Amino acid sequence: MGRRSPYLISLFRSKPRVCDSAICEFQAPTARASLTHPSPNLQKSEPFQGQLQHTTYQVFVYNVHCIAIYIFQMRLVSLRLVLRNFAEIVMLENKVQSTHSKSTGLPRKRFYRARAHSNPLSDSHFPVPVAPSHVDYSLHYPQLFPSSDVAGSCKKIQFADIGCGFGGLLISLSTLFPETLMIGMELRDKVTEYVKERILALRVTNPGQYQNISVVRTNSMKYIPNYFEKAQLSKMFFLFPDPHFKEKNHRRRVISPFLLDEYAYALEVGGIIYTITDVEELGEWMKTCLENHPMFEALTSEELEADPVTELLSSATEEGQKVDRNGGQTFRAIYRRIAPSL
Q1: Annotated active-site positions, please?
Q2: What is the pTM of this model?
């Protein structure tokens, strides 16, 4: 046998419990004294059996009382859980209401803070369509495509804003080209969520408008062929991309000789690629890459003046507005997709 527990020893040495004291209370002094050594005749006596039944009834009442207290406590716990869940729902609703401006109904940018840039070479986890035919247009343009079956539809996305940021250019282009489908591609999740909320709020406050723009979180340096067919796009925008100043990080730049091959694949002949930056070294880099590529040629000054989009490159985006406020200089490189010479 092992050593006895101190708790069991304390039970043997403790005072009589409720049931023992109840038995002693209804005994005569002589019978109470004989409880320590009860005689056989006393155990068979009728008064003692009646007193024992009375004590059993008291123990039963005591147990029922304990069960009632336990049920009451459990109900209190359940009530606390219900109240806490209700409080969380109220806090969530208040948070949703607070993230949007009461006057305009648009989301407030300070609730969607994110890093200025992301590493495009890192592995991010988000859904990517297997092929352009698997892109669900009904999720992006529900009013134009009520059904997810768009295989027979001839209307496709034509404008792509690569690294769309907070969606300023998309919103400006939406009213300028209301019949053209366009999409913004952004790698940062919080910024993508902000653009989604912004577009939804604009659709509510302006019925019938902004139905032709959408945004998707993806890495355009990896998945352009997953979203666009050959010669599907007519315009691509690369506005104020990450400069990646260090030479070892130049491979992360969104404009490079290798990526221009993919962009040329997605652009139709005559399609235009727009680039702008406030970093002179990056501007020269993008211009050199486009000039040396056999499938792009620069637009003439007359063509640039006639194009209404060129004015939006620096005025529609948040980065362009910041550069303008600070009196900075911008560097543009706008080129046309041409057929390769045989």
Answers
A1: 242
A2: 0.68
